[in-house]
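Narrative of activities, Objective 1.

The group set out to show that a structural description can be obtained from nothing but a protein's sequence at a throughput compatible with the screening campaign. Below is one input-output pair from the validation batch, recorded exactly as produced.
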Amino acid sequence: MSGKSFVQITNDVSKGLEALRSEVPEAMQGFGAMAKGALKDGALSALHKELIALAIGVASRCDACIGFHVKALIRLGVTREQLMETLAVCAYMGGGPTLMYAAEAVRAYDELLVRTAKPAVAA
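Output recorded for this entry:
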């Protein structure tokens, strides 16, 4: 098992993104506007668009992309089955190396779901 923590990865990358937002605000605002426009509900739901983004992150072997898109998917209510079917398509299209990063996306989901799950309230 890998020693990677997707919580730590996303926290660390977020710090770098904060510096970019501060030091090159116009470029980051442009990127943010593109992301917002691309990911909003339309003919495809926001959830389906995030699944596509995750698939590209897996195929590109981008740990931070996996972490951020899994977080977004959890927020959007992705089911484990939806995640797994998306990762199966990734593995089919990308072969063995992509399969290894599909496994990393499963680890990210498991780790981040635990971190974002709301505690049960006693009835």
